[in-house]
Amino acid sequence: MRGSVAAIAAAALIGAGLAVTPATPAAAAPAQGVYPRDLPALSSEAPADAVSADPEAAGDFAPLADAASAESSYDPDTSEVADRSEFTTTYDNTNGTQTITQSTEPMNVEDEDGNWQPIEVDLTDGDEGRAETDQHPLSPSFAEDAGDPDLLQVAVDDHTASLGLVQPADDSEVEVDGSTAEYADIAPNTDLA
């Protein structure tokens, strides 16, 4: 409604011989730049209250220097585990010091009682003929033969994932040696380990 009233008023003014020109904003003043070389140089004098004397070290750092040059007191035969977490193991050494081993990959896994135990990677015979580890965060297991679609299976919490071969050799049975599971002759001149 308001737009049509304005159009009618403009038409009436034009009909009366009056020109209608829209209002234009005033032109902005051109921006004036400053050339950096035209600026005066800043004073480089030091403030009067600046400290000129070198501070003296008040501490005795000799024990730290001695400790840094000393050999580790960790001994796998005598140091005892004091604490574990997923990524660290802390040992109490015989001289009263502690040694912490740390990794970006998991070192320990929680058992059923909530205690941290070292990860085991050696494979043993498990359920349904699968080779598996007892203490590992991924609970990996390997099928009894290469024809199983769940050749390699991992599990975290209640989630599992499996890998299998597209053209498996059903007669290739798993051979376990420590942490290695090997399937011989899954294809011509091809073993899988």
Structure in words:
The protein has 193 residues and is an alpha+beta fold. It contains two helices and 13 strands. The strands form four sheets. It has a five-stranded antiparallel β-sheet, with no helix packed on it. Strands 1-2-3 form a three-stranded antiparallel β-sheet, with no helix packed on it. Residues 1-7 and 9-20 have low confidence and may be disordered.
Concise summary:
With about 190 residues, the chain is an alpha+beta fold. It has helices at about 1-15, 60-70; strands at about 80-85, 90, 100, 110, 115-120, 125, 130, 140, 150-155, 160-165, 175, 180-185, 190. Strand 2 (about 90) and strand 3 form a beta hairpin.
List key phrases describing it.
three-stranded antiparallel sheet, five-stranded antiparallel sheet, alpha+beta, 11% helix, disordered N terminus, 193 residues, 2 helices
* Tally of helical segments: 2
Number of strands: 13
Mean pLDDT across all residues, rounded?
A: 78
> So what's the oligomer here?
single chain
Order of helices and strands: HHEEEEEEEEEEEEE
**Proportion of residues in extended strands:** 25-35%
Into which percent range does the helicity of residues fall? Answer: 10-25%
CA-atom Rg in angstroms: 40 Å
Structural class: alpha+beta
**Largest sheet, if any?**
5 strands, antiparallel
